[in-house]
Amino acid sequence: MRSTKTIVYPAPGQPDISKRVTRAVRRLCQSQATVPGPNGSRVSLSRQVVDELVGRMIHATSHAAIRPIDNRLRRRGAPPDNARIILASDVLEACAELGISTGLRYVPPESFAVALFNVVSPIIWGSGGHNPRKTFERLRKAQIIRN
Length: 147
What we know:
By secondary structure, the chain is mainly alpha-helical. The chain has helices at residues 18-31, 47-64, 82-97, 112-125, 133-141, and strands at 34-36, 42-44. A two-stranded antiparallel ribbon has the order 1-2. The longest helix is centred in the middle third of the chain and has 18 residues, at 47-64. The protein is globular, with a radius of gyration of 16 Å.
């Protein structure tokens, strides 16, 4: 039996991005004192919630920043960027577990989950201004579940 080892970012020779993720997530949380909860109530972004969210986003970026994951089936057209789907899944999971609404609104004012994705993704991939609508739609439509 062959054992596999999960590579966690940063890989050797690559910079550590945890400080940049920490600053970006804290800045986002400071700009919004409360966020919508899953049942329509408001959730206060207390220090404990923000610390937990920062930890989860550092963990999520460590998995999404490793490399694109190959598709199982070859089909026509460009392959989907599975690393973006991993990050989107982790963002929604973190929001759900912390009692924050996982609703998705892409136009201003963006939902908290979309804003969190938009804050973290440019740190990983260096490209900003990407509308994550297609990423989240593919995640929900295909019912992709992370292991």
